[in-house]
Amino acid sequence: YNTELALHLLPQFLPRVQQQQQQQLSQEGGSQPSFTLPKIQFLTIFLGANDSCTPPSPQHVELNRYEQNIRTLIDMVHSPTSPTYSPETRIILICPPPVDEPRYALQRKEQGIRMDRDKDVTRQYAETCLRIGREYQAKNGQQQPEQHCQLDVIDTWGLVTERVERGQGTMSDYLNDGLHLASAGNDLIFEQIMKIIRGRYPEWDPDTLPMNTPWWRDLKDPKTELLLCANKI
């Protein structure tokens, strides 16, 4: 998928402001709401590798349009005028990784498919994503409460490139086929996400989050203690 397709998908995952207001009014009135809306605490946006395909690839999205789309996706969540406004949702914007062009070109040649990636073109998309992220990041804490409309950005391109240049692995370690992430690439992004959560949102550190249910050894009345639904009796 690319950012054009994400524009259609993301609104379907987000609760609408009108629904949130209806739920709140129901709760304030002391009645049990007929529905419970999901609450999204963290949202990652990891797009750009496909947008940067070279024409005539059907996945290609022009750089200016890509920038506009990324901003639109962010604003769907963090703009007060958005019907899916959710200021409590923290966004982590992830830049596309580099392209190991020789390896990817060899694979495409073996498959009899034209080459549709250019590392310098993809770098422009990664740099655009990073610039957008830093722009929004500079606004962190400007709204009240301070935890509202928070955004962080992960410079995947820069981190992978820097590690390879330092001799901390090769492009083959980070990219399976010259394009898609290998284990080390996935580990790198996971490490960065956890660094953001543990550094800026320690209350959401999975190592310290309370359990939703008691330890099995501590259960005294499973019939009641294991009821998780909103309509507990």
Automatic annotation (TrEMBL):
Entry protein name: SGNH hydrolase-type esterase domain-containing protein
InterPro entries: GDSL (IPR001087), Iah1-like (IPR045136), SGNH_hydro_sf (IPR036514)
MF term (GO), any: hydrolase activity, acting on ester bonds
Source taxon at top rank: Eukaryota
